[in-house]
Amino acid sequence: MSEIPLQIDGKDVVAEEGDTILEAAQGAGISIPTLCHHEKLAPYGGCRICVVEAESKGASRLVVSCVHPVEKNLIVRTRSEKVDRIRKTLLELLMAHAPESPALRQLADEYGADGERFEKEISFCVHCGLCVRYCAEVVKKNAVGFIDRGVRKEISFIPEIAAKECDDCKECFPLCPTSYLQAAYVLVESLAFRRD
Amino acid sequence: MARINSPAELEAFRKEILSRRDPTKPCITLCSGTACHATGSKEVAIAIEEELKKQALADKVDFRKTGCHGFCEKGPIVVIDPEETCYLQVTPDDVPELITAALKEHTVVERLIYTDPNTGEKTAHEPEIPFYKHQKRMVFGANRRIAPQSLEDYLANDGAKALVKALVEMTPEEIIAEVKDAGLRGRGGAGFPAGVKWEFARKSKGEPKYVVVNCDEGDPGAYMDRSLMEGNPYGVLEGLIIGAYAIGAHEGYFYVRQEYPLALENLSVAIERAEARGLLGKNILGSGFDFTVKVHRGAGAFVCGEETALLRSLEGKAGEPRPRPPYPAVKGLWDKPTNINNVETWANVPLIINKGAEAFASIGTEGSKGTKIFSLVGKINNTGLVEVPMGITLREVIFDIGGGIPKGKKFKAVQTGGPSGGCIPEKLLDLKVGFDELTKAGSMMGSGGMIIMDEETCMVDVARYFVDFLTDESCGKCVPCREGLRQMHKILTRITEGKGKKEDIATLESLAETAVEASLCALGSTAANPFLSTFRYFKEEYTAHIDDKRCPALSCKELISYYINPANCTGCGLCLKNCPDGAIDGGKKKIHIIDQDKCTNCGTCFDVCPPKFNSVIKISGEAVPPPIAEEQRVIVRKKKGK
Predict the structure, then answer these.
(1) What chain B residue is nearest to A52 in terms of C-alpha separation?
(2) Which residues of B326-336 are buried (b: 16+ CB within 10 A; e: fewer)?
(3) What is the pLDDT of residues A5-40, one digit of tens each?
(4) How confident is residue B419, by pLDDT bands cut at 50, 70 and 90?
(5) Smallest Cα–Cα separation from B309: which of B75, B476, B107, B105?
(6) Interchain CB distance below 8 Å, A151 and B473
């Protein structure tokens, strides 16, 4: 593995080839906010909160740091007017679902996000996918999955698997930033669990 | 079927096919594409077969059911060769007369040939019909001359010549150089140079390599790829085999929408026959090159037209895009180097190999070479598929080929590039058609959809419609697209309902910026285009909706009222009879009045009011005049009795 030199927030950083910008930043003690990222899981790139400005050969663009690989001599800015503005809008969009989520509120304070900007939505899931991916990648049971697509997409426990596996696990519960997971679990448990 | 083992054997076979064919023998060509199928070409085919038997002409005339001819507005289409006499909107009842005239009396059935709606001038000769005259049908033209499943027809029309040239005379590097020099850019949407893409895949480390045909065409109103796949499957296949050879792939996939049954059928037969003849499979034409293909049916998600989502879907997973890089050329299907091109891109390849890069690049503009197939739909006289040289102006496409706007209405905008494209206004009609030109105008080439809009189209409603489509088709993985579209849709709906707020525009702009800058794939990053381009060119319509609660196009149901102009009402009673809500008060010799409280704005009265009276009108942004006094409602006939 070859070493890749780059600059993050003015600091010279050396990363390994194949590392993401987020990994390089974390290695250098620079913090980038994330919601759908988890160190035990493959990078997902769903919430886009970790968006940063990346400049190479004089051209600057926005990239998502949890999935974007480091490049030689890349200049990364983890905060800028534009980055902050986009993070603010993303947070406001998510707060339409989960206005009281501690993870969102904390970031909302930092980025000046207005939780009231968008009309409230019924579902308080923010689709970070942590539960679905943790169950698939770490526990390897696939007891919870995504169903449907687009704005109708939601998480759902698969009763046949969940009834057998979840009682003794529930490792995904603390991962959920909104507690929607717990609600979904209780719902499917009361409706469809067969425990003979 | 005997296997063809060498280029020499192929040429011998081609010669033998041609020796059996007499170019002067009459041939009845019937368009049997999906569009003509819908207007009854199957019944016409049966009628032709019966009539040929009846008139004892079956062995004197060839009858060929071909793919789409393009002039879908006027289907079913029959063309009699070699004269190229074109008959439009043919019904089974027309067939006996048509066959007698064309094949026995050698006359033309005047009532079935093209009549110019404006001048009344009649044209029988297909290439002279304005719809065809201004086109350049390099890719699409073969559709008219071959029965899609017939390998013999394909070979008789110079098919597989490019394949032989590529396999025998050219190295993979030379083929890639030729495609690069030709300046062929991807016809599926992004317009990435095909040769450069091929080179990446060729140089990429990892085996095996794959090539994929993207036939997951999903833009509303667009059906270029369907018609090519249905009408000329061997042509697409030939392009794919050449590409596979150039890239070093031995396996390929056709990803075809499940909703395209005829394309799937014709393609599957073509693959089977090509394999049986040795044009596909092991040791193609004795060259030592092996290549096999499989057909995969898409399950109907729009986003699967995006290459990384398509690959995941091919792997049997949910069709969600993944971040790029790595690009499919590095990590594609099952993490192996993969090259994906759209149907039309692959179909261009044999042309480039046959005629050379220079000839291909001589057509078009600086950045866009060759031709492009567009589907002309919406408020246009000649709905259909057209193939035009790059660099033609929008005006030529819409007015010279498309025949302009029906019912004498005024042109307002053309929407290009599919749902994530944009609307181009009248003042830019002289814009040249090309990748960079359209992008500069705030739209994009996309896969080639052109939706024409007239003065009665509300541009805010258009933006709402396309955002609605995208909201439904977003995969839902990333926030800017899923949540951004959800909110954009709510706001645009609100504006069309007259509930827009001043701050809505700023909110839409910030949602647009977030979608453009932070989305995972091209669906999201272009999802704001319907708003951005309509706002750019039709800002006044947005302000009219928000500030004045007025829809200038008189189209948004919540913002208009229907009103009977007392001066024009003759008391004919048609509106009264047809109103489903009982909202009209009237009677004999009485001026009719709409009760605004009961009216649901269905528009029935407007539609049934005879144009010569034109008394029901639409009003927006102003108060409906109060009903006239009862005593003034009696209509006194002026002509009679005086």
Answers:
(1) B518
(2) ebbbbbbbeeb
(3) 999 999 999 999 999 999 999 999 999 999 999 999
(4) confident
(5) B476
(6) no
Region label for B621, one of left (φ > 0), alpha (ψ between -120 and 50) or beta (otherwise): left
Question: Measured between beta carbons, which residues in chain B are less than 8 angstroms from residue A90?
Answer: 479-480, 483, 514, 518
Contacts of B259 (CB under 8 A, 6+ apart): B300
Contact list in B for residue A46 (CB cut-off 8 A) is 477-479, 520
The residue to which tokens 């929407």 are assigned: B415
Greater confidence, B66 or B447?
A: B66
Judge: B518–A150 Cβ closer than 8 Å, yes or no: no
Tokens of B67: 């793919």
Question: Could you give the CA distance from residue A48 to residue B142 in angstroms, rounded to a whole number?
Answer: 47
Half-sphere exposure of B461 (CA within 13 A, CB side): 18
Give kind and range of the element (H or E) at residue B66.
Answer: strand B62-66
- Residue B300: the pLDDT is 75
Confidence of residue A99 (pLDDT cuts 50, 70, 90): very high
Average pLDDT over residues A61-88: 96
Q: Which stretches of A39-176 are DSSP H helices?
A: 81-95, 102-111, 130-134, 159-165
Q: By C-alpha distance, which of B485, B117, B163 is closest to B354?
A: B163
CATH class of A3-79: alpha beta
Record the tokens describing residue A83, joined without a space. Answer: 């980055």
Contact B264, B295 (CB under 8 A): yes
| Closest alpha carbon to B486 in B503, B499, B501, B473 | B473
Residue B96: in which H helix or E strand, if any? helix B95-99
Q: What is the ipTM score, two decimals?
A: 0.96
pLDDT band at residue B85 under the 50/70/90 scheme: very high
Structure pTM? 0.90
pLDDT for B639: 55
In terms of Cβ atoms closer than 10 Å to its own Cβ (0-12, 13-18, 19+), residue B588 is exposed
Tokens for B354, please give them: 């046959």
Chain B residues within 8 A of A84 when measuring between CB atoms = none
Contact A86/B517, CB-based, under 8 Å? yes
* Residue-wise burial string across B287-319, b where 16 or more C-beta atoms lie within 10 A, e elsewhere: eebebebebbebeebbbbbbbbbbbbbbeeebb
Copy the structure tokens of residue B283.
Answer: 């040791």
Q: Are strands B371-378 and B251-257 parallel, antiparallel or unpaired?
A: unpaired
Token digits of residue B631: 């005593």
Mean pLDDT of chain B: 94
Tell me how many residue pairs between chain A and chain B have CB atoms under 8 A apart.
94
Q: Show the tokens assigned to A43.
A: 């990078």
- Do A33 and A49 contact (CB within 8 A), yes or no? yes
Which residue ranges form the domains of chain B, and what is each CATH number?
A: 25-132 (3.40.30.10), 151-361 (3.40.50.11540), 371-457 (3.10.20.600), 460-547 (1.20.1440.230), 559-633 (3.30.70.20)
Domain boundaries, chain A: 3-79, 130-192
Question: What per-residue confidence (pLDDT) applies to B285?
Answer: 96
Q: Give residue for tokens 């060839």.
A: B62
Instruction: Find, in chain B, the residue whose alpha carbon is nearest to that of A53.
Output: B517
Task: Check pLDDT > 70 for residue B640.
Answer: no
Per-residue pLDDT reduced to its tens digit, B562-586: 999 999 999 999 999 999 999 999 8
Closest by Cα among B576, B567, B574, B584 to B638:
B567
Is A89–B513 a contact, with Cβ atoms under 8 angstroms apart?
Answer: yes
Query: Which of B318, B490, B518 lies closest to A51 in CB terms?
Result: B518
Q: Mean pLDDT of all residues in chain A?
A: 95
CA B107/CA B567 separation, integer angstroms? 53
* Closest chain A CA to residue B507: A117
Q: What is the pLDDT of residue B638?
A: 59
